[in-house]
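Bumping with the actual sequence this time:
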Amino acid sequence: MLIATYALSTGSERTTALVKTVILPREGERHLHGNASFTSAYVLRASVEAQALGHGLILLHSHPHSAGWQRLSDMDRNTESEYERVARTITKTPLVGMTLGGADEAWSARFWFDRTAPSWAESVRTVSAKLKVTWNDQLRGIPAVTRSQQRTVSSWGESTQKSIARLRILVVGAGSVGLDVAQRLAATGIEEIGVMDYDAVEIVNLDRMIGATRLDAALGRAKVDVAARLMKSAATARRFRVSTHEVSITDPAGVSMALDYDVIFSCVDRPWPRAVLNEIAYSDLIPVIDGGIALDTFRDGRMRNGIWRAHTLVPGRPCMACLGQLVLGDVALDKNGLLDDPEYIAGANREAPSRQNVAALSSSVSAALLAQFVSLTAHPGGRGVSAPLRYLLSTHTLEHSAAPSGPYCPYENALAVGDARTPIAEQREDWRAIVRQRSTKKATLRLRGLAAIEGILTRAIGRLK
């Protein structure tokens, strides 16, 4: 039985309490007598300490021989209800209660917004190289295993499948890598996937966006809508839900939506959006799986080398900046549009950002990212995600990065600060103007007719059992 503090992480639909600091009892503040209990003096002292930190208060206790999501005994309920008003009055935030099932280390949690009854959490997540989730089955039902998931389930077992399938996963960037990742997650049986991108399909994308069609490019369809169509076609879950977010992750609106998810795939290559995702991984304890590809050519256009990387950003693993995958000085340049300004690039004696990419190799990046996801959630061999990986195409070498975390890293040192995170995202009108312009654009009668026929066929195929 202990007391801890928490910070809030507030998404557009979900609120998360991030455990921050354990406040240990002093002599005489906790009694052991078969059961354990603590004194009101301990609760008062901890509440004052939490208030000074700007945190909320958590009462933690265990059921040593129990397993799974734990409910409250009458005694537990009375204790938490009794201290709810004290904690809320001093900290100005709701009391949180947490219970550990000692048999399998499963946590349950609840908010107390008043003393009458708790509001149960949907899940409790513990984040490290292994993501472990305890689910409240009453609020987040157990997914049924479908016939089309037999080989998936045979790879890691039904219990793991039922946990993975309940994760809410966001793919940021619906280009060549993101589109592939999103479809494979849907085929894996994930029930809820979000995809975020404000861009549209163009004819130059068709050599990399596998599944996008010439009709998509001719209509200028939003990438998120194309991704949603392809995910629905690939999905194997009985209840599949896709959420399309036609916003930028560099906008506070995009950040708020991202905070509703359990795992995020970073499939973007610009410094600013990657900086935002890098921060979320540590400030809000949402694992971010990031990677990318760089192709290099000789002056005569022949291929010199290709490098792709994959890494998962979790506490205990270095952030993108510490890995050398994010140059913080470039974030300001990206915000100001200078990385797209040829005059600035020439004046600063910089190389223009590499634009080479091919469908034949982008699938290697998506495979590397998905392997990180499987390691994070299924823990093959009892192990979690690896150290950051880098594959060199010219020498066919797979390297493990030994890059350490920087002792003064601003991202990793802002662990679990939640809503007190440093604001990197900014409200901008440029991406909103692009989305508005697309929504008012009218297609020709011929294109609208083709789109209608495509819709009829897609719906008919979707009804096949």
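The tokens above came from a reply further down the thread. The first helix runs from residue 40 to 53.
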